[in-house]
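Hi team,

Filling in the usual template for the complex we talked about on Friday. All components are listed, including any nucleic acid strands or ligand strings, so the model treats them as one assembly.

SUBMITTER: L.P.
PURPOSE: interface mapping
COMPONENTS: two
RESIDUES: 734
SEQUENCES:
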Amino acid sequence: MKAKAKVKPKAVPALVNMGNGLSKEILSGRNPSIAIPLRNLSNVRFDEERSIIQLGDQKQNRHFFNVAMAKKFMQTLMVAAKCKEHIEQGKTTSLRDMYYMVLKTFPQSTEKTVDEQSETDEVAEDLEVALDLLREELHLFADKRGTLVGEIELEDNGDPIDGRRAGSGGWSVPSIVEPSVIKFKRCTAKFILLVEKAAVWQRLHEDKFWQKHKCILVTGQGQSSRGVRRLLYRLVNELKLPLYVATDNDPWGYYIYSVIKQGSINLAYESMRMAIPSARFIGFSSRDPEKFDLPKGVEIKLNQNDVNRAKQLLEYRWFKKKEWQEEIKYMLKTGNKYELQALSTKDISFITDDYLPRKLKQRDWLD
Amino acid sequence: MKAKAKVKPKAVPALVNMGNGLSKEILSGRNPSIAIPLRNLSNVRFDEERSIIQLGDQKQNRHFFNVAMAKKFMQTLMVAAKCKEHIEQGKTTSLRDMYYMVLKTFPQSTEKTVDEQSETDEVAEDLEVALDLLREELHLFADKRGTLVGEIELEDNGDPIDGRRAGSGGWSVPSIVEPSVIKFKRCTAKFILLVEKAAVWQRLHEDKFWQKHKCILVTGQGQSSRGVRRLLYRLVNELKLPLYVATDNDPWGYYIYSVIKQGSINLAYESMRMAIPSARFIGFSSRDPEKFDLPKGVEIKLNQNDVNRAKQLLEYRWFKKKEWQEEIKYMLKTGNKYELQALSTKDISFITDDYLPRKLKQRDWLD
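RESULT (copied from the run log):
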């Protein structure tokens, strides 16, 4: 796209640099290798000061002259070459397409360069980490998911988007939201509200919650995509807006919040550019059924999966705060979980007119 | 929302009429009942003339004084009452919220009015069919899914949307797209292209396919949602645009197309307002790997599920056309399926610059 082609991509020098390093090694008769940071649990740590999950310093050298590594070495260079080509053409590609672009059979053989997409996916993540680039900067995208409305005007690839006039459907958050594509123009919002579920987002949008409370309303439709996380990061850091997160009251809802706040184990190397330690959990909390006098019958019994997951969360370093330990333990004690939509038993717009305003006013959130 | 409140809803008279009928029966001492059309395979037929799947005439009477029916009778009236309330308030609700709104426990008892959401979902479908209304007219919505860009300007709940300036993310198709919410303003498109996959949509959008070929580009992200189907129906019928459908080359892709064209068995009662018999299947066809000289290795072996499903499709009345029988049989013969993205092995923009233009020009589609 035009807007993208204009930007000076820092990925190209990084890729060229990697290539030059390799050719030097080859020309000097050495075994060419690339240093890839390890991306497993043993190399992940919680940075207490910054309050985010980070990748450690362990690396592995991927050599060409090594039977176990030669194929992966080749794949790494094939994907790197394709990325460079796409960035220079100003085109982006899905991970699935990348798989097909790298897939070839060797002449006079049925042996393939790649057998499964998971191989090229992994290599793409290797490149991200090794070169300290975002996947988006390599012009790779995952499926987009997530919608936004509210008090902000922005530019999406040169097109003006007004969050206050984005229709009932809202603006669909693309998977690449770097400043080269998305520019913030004018913001009259005082905060951002992220809701887990599209149906809750729809309710709040229909009730014009964002207008009454001057905010930006986003849904991630479950676990937020990288596009949504990166957009929230940019909104929070560039526009200095507080972020509130509303999920269902179950261990998966807690975790959705914690990924937004501290980052995830899988994508620990992205935390620096995606985690939002200032994010606050505005609900649904285990204490809310009493606080808001919910009728009986709307609770859902925790199943064994839920209980196990809750116990795991209790052990995570980033859930060790007193209020979170209490929150999760209270859920386990009652044996119940709740959906945000259980609030609808009170009234269709209870969440808009009562629940959220009251929580915001009383600063009734978990940090 | 304002725009909705302005419209005179035909659902309210229908609901009131049902209620009046019941109260007459009660006042005259009869056993009150509602006639609900049967929604199972035995009551579905393929209308050859119109070329759509339709619901037959079989009905069942749901009585109040009948142990097996009393609870469902009560649920039907509870959901009907809530729908009327919401339409009058100008509010819409998700099926999940509807479940919670109807969920109560009886005094001095733990017995609930509803145990599972599936019960209220079914009752909502009953009301749709019995009253000959769209779910959307009852102000109920499912999660939205699907995105649009291209040569059309429309109004979404009073907000102007320009498909040519909808950003890289595109306009997110809402789940309710009735004329009261979505108004078509100006259309410069010559046709509509629906693609199954978001990543393919992204590729075509980035390459500005819609601009070069003057079209509207929509993705349903898998099986199209009711919102997308209804919007396509309106675009085809109100703006007289031809519709082309591009899916992966597998039995599920064929079926996605056939639901757009003839309707589905589950939602047979919606065919009249959603099926688009003029829709054309532009690919991916089993003959394309040869026609477009795809390299070896990009094929995927059919698994047993695929084979079984393909054989089922061969038996459906609406796949009995000669070219479809050949298409499916050829897939079974080769034992392979393909993703549209396999075209990327040729070139990242092969689908935009070569595949689709050639198919359109040569009228190389299945009907």
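MY TAKE: Chain B touches chain A through 58 residues (CB under 8 Å). The mean pLDDT of chain B is 92.

Thanks, L.
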